Amino acid sequence: MELKFDGRIFCVSRPETEFDVFVKDFVSMLEKAGVKYVIVSGYVAILFGRSRNSEDVDVLIDDVAFGRFERLWAEASRLFECINSSNPKDAFDNYLSSGLALRFSAKGRPIPNMEVKFAKTELDAWTISNAVKVNLNGLLLNTSPLELQIPYKLYLGSFKDIEDAKHLWLVTKNHLDKRVLDSFIGQMGVKKEAAKWLV
Question: Are 138 and 46 contained in the same domain?
């Protein structure tokens, strides 16, 4: 993998997997529908070159009105299907608006899938507003700010999550805002974990 940073955008150059193509297709659909989004959690580490398996991608989207969601649903239905529900009103009312995730997969292929949630909290909104741009072989993707992503993974604390945090730290540490990183380390109560793993 080759990684460059121009001060605004991380440029990642590496061979693409079917998983990457699935993500790029879904993100392109969100952008066509005019919906703001940010990729969070495990795929961020994979995007930055970590080699590990995953069956889903976590995505936060703007908390839009139903009319806008209907347009998103229609656009998504061209290539994808919703695993949770076949009805957009049910999907909107009983899942997204209730704080639950919708899962979308390529038609006829339940794995991998996108786990989509509305941005409901101030931190969710901040994450979308401060998304990091990553150029993967020519397509821009919006990901969680790494200064948040790394402490969050330490907070989750599983072996997989710690390895994700360590990988992101190692490949991006020279480009992080240490003040913001330290702030989130403090907010999430992971100072000991950061001292141990972020070396």
Answer: yes
Give me the residue label for tokens 């150029």: 135
Instruction: Supply the pTM of this predicted model.
Output: 0.94
- For residue 179, give its domain range: 147-199
Are 86 and 156 in a shared domain? Answer: no
Q: Are residues 35 and 110 in the same domain?
A: yes
The reply to whether 43 and 123 lie within a common domain is yes
Tokens of 107: 């038609």
**Span 99-114, pLDDT tens digits:** 999 999 999 999 999 9
Which pLDDT tens digit goes with each residue over 59-97?
Answer: 999 999 999 999 999 999 999 999 999 999 999 999 999
